[in-house]
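Translate sequence into structure tokens.
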Amino acid sequence: MVIVKAEDIVRVIGALPAETSNARGYFKRTVNKNTTQLAVADIKSTVGNIPVIKRGGSGFRPVMKADVEYIVPQPIEIDDSFSPIEDDAFERATGLGKQQIVDERLSRWAKVVRETTRALCCQAHRGSIDYMMQAGSKLVRYQVDYGNVAGIEEDSQISALTVGSLVEHLEELSEKISNNGIGGDYEFIAASDVYRKVVELSANQTKFNVATGKGFIDFGGFRIMRDNDSYTDTDEGGKETVKRLLEPHELMIRASDAGQELDFLRLDDSVQRQAVPLYSFTVERPDHRGTDLYVKSKPFPLINTKGIAVLKFAG
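Result follows.
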């Protein structure tokens, strides 16, 4: 049978491409928490406000936030298998060949876990998670409420933007965050249509210093990044929808340090009792028709909605 070892997981994680997601990149602090639940007191000390998890599909709604003492995040769990033919190939392979067989399969699922984590980070930026979750044979909703993200509705269109009005909007968003008591550095993320206009304005002016890099532009002391996140969500009827961090015509500000962190909690597993970002193991199938492969992770983004605001142009 195919055997997955701890060093295989470390090797596969280490070989993944560098993280490029703007949504995931916001959570520079990652913590392995050796618990299956998060104490509200700890969350308050970290980000100042607590999320409330709604259990999708059951009609259950939690008690009011003031009465919630613990939050229980949901896991990512993947079930796969190796056929008897693949088992035979593994047994006949050299040491390097065994690594390649394991790496190919684990890499596939590690990427899925990474993409799912990105999706959760995207949704957290908007103040709530509403994501597909498997419950038996059905898809239900995994819902988390972090609180309201401040919004500004702008009457003017993107085409009407000038250098002066752009700076005014950036300052207006900055004031939204500072009025919430969140200081320090700020950064901006623009939907693709807004980003194109920012690039156009910066190229046609000479008053402000401009510096560019891959997916961002520094303009007049403001760093503006292009939204590079997208993910697929599936509703309870099985319909797939591609979503992004930002909708068209949107410009987001976020405080660089508002206490946000990405937690990886202890898994629902009777053997692996320590919190890890990714865990996998194999078991011989009881019918002797191959090897079952299991992959698990339990990421949970903690975000302070006071450190985020969104401006939406009319079009």
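Note: Residues 55-67 have pLDDT under 50 and may be disordered.
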